[in-house]
Amino acid sequence: MEFRLLMLSAMYENGGNTVHRFLDGHPQMFVYPFESQLGTHLVQDHLTSVFPVKYRWPRFALDATPLQDYRAIIDEECKVRARTPLVSKFRHIPFAFSDDERCALYLDYVRRQGRSTGSNMEAFFRATFDAWKDYRFTGEQELYVGYSPIVGVDADRIVADISTAHVLHVVRNPWSAYADTKKRPVPMSLERYVTAWSLTQYHALIFRNRYPDRVHIVRFEDVVADPKQALGAICEKIGLKRADTLDQPTWNGNLLEEVYPWGTIRRASPATNRATAAELSAAEIDKVRVWAEPYLDPLNYRNFL
């Protein structure tokens, strides 16, 4: 089967995990169990000071072995759940998976198909689902789905490294997004958060213009209003069916009452989204508007508040 990949991207608290969970039950998709934090510490560029390298598209050393490549992939959430489950925030969910077995399968794939960034990523995703013993196979799966926050800043590298890859960037209005990030134990300042929010939207818009058939943008507001319509349209663009499962968030096909702890957005609904934005003070609302100004019209958020 030809390797096909859909990478999800979203700024923090923009609904990437929510969309990931809405796609989870699609019968034609192999959906990664957690954030697929594919980056390596070899990612060093002008964006490294803004975004954690674990969320970036990986880079590998030219003289590394396949085993060194595998170990370089950060993939924190999956490796913690597999190797030290009692400290994982996902310890409550069944997950029959061995990281050692996945490593062995990965090495076998790379031995057969060669070593490159694209080949390494194909081996990584294929080996993950080969090693996941209680995964819900439908017999229809033909597309792998990963999610790394802000990986859309590397969309040009993704589509260059994997000729069949697509990138779906999720954007949420900056007021609700900032209000949710304020709830983190150590939140980013308003200026820093909205600067990073703007930078991710800049890359998403630029790369969608450059690769209109392979880079896509969906608004969180449209997803929570009608997930089957918003995500079904994306599915059809990439050659999949508009499945009924898109109407509800799941994990390994099991219905989730709330997306947390996969993401900080617990209830995905238009009312909750607007109520979250309204938690900000009038001064904060105005300041977010000033910092996000260039992207309000392109993303249709001018009149959100």
Protein described:
This protein is α/β, with parallel strands linked by helices and 305 residues long. It has one domain (5-296): Rossmann fold. The chain contains 12 helices and 7 strands. The strands form 2 sheets. The protein has a 5-stranded parallel β-sheet with strand order 2-3-1-4-5, with helices on both faces. It is globular, with a radius of gyration of 19 Å.
Task: Kindly list the characteristics that best describe this protein.
305 residues, alpha/beta, Rossmann fold, five-stranded parallel beta sheet, 12 helices, 42% helix
Question: What's the helix and strand layout?
Answer:
Elements: E1 5-10, H1 16-23, E2 29-31, H2 66-72, H3 76-83, H4 99-113, H5 117-131, E3 143-147, H6 155-161, E4 166-171, H7 174-181, H8 190-210, E5 215-219, H9 220-225, H10 227-237, E6 250-251, E7 254-255, H11 270-277, H12 282-296
Summary, kept brief:
By secondary structure, the chain is α/β, with parallel strands linked by helices. 42% of the residues lie in helices and 10% in strands. The chain has a single domain, classed as Rossmann fold (3-Layer(aba) Sandwich), CATH 3.40.50.
